[in-house]
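#lab-general

N.A. 3:47 PM
ok so I finally got the sequence cleaned up, no stray characters, all 171 residues accounted for. can someone with queue access submit it? mine expired

B.Y. 3:52 PM
send it over

N.A. 3:53 PM
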Amino acid sequence: MQLHFTFADEPATESFARSLAAAWRQQQPRRLLVTLQGDLGAGKTTLVRAFLRALGVQGRIKSPSFSLVEEYTIGISDLQFMRTLQTQIYHIDLYRFSHPGEWDDSGLAEILGSPGVSLVEWPEHAAGRLPVADLALHLDVEGTQRRLVAEAATAAGMDLLRAVPGGLNTG
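B.Y. 4:20 PM
back already:
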């Protein structure tokens, strides 16, 4: 399933991210991998920050360009058991990888195999090493607008995309 979106400005990109976070909160798959591709300045980190804010992350949200990964813990209300469950969200940035083999030595594969949400920027820098993304987001800059192609490869990804309004379905 593939949807196309056009964002007039940064607030529109943030609105999409908030919708995606709301959809995730409704679905809460045990594990979710979202990859984000696009040139520098395309809005990948902006989208991730808005997603994290929508899930209740407070304080500074740093880009993991130098640290490779930033980890956030959020509380999700579990009505069935009447308590709050802790969920991990990992923001991973592979921009500094110079070849895909660096992925093998990074230890990050363990994160993608664990429960929680993994948001991976620059996945092409680990080409062939990452599992199939539930949701692959590709952002392009066109003048003052951003174009986003969102492609779901799993049931979890398709469920999220179906819950996000405003996309043009192209298959």
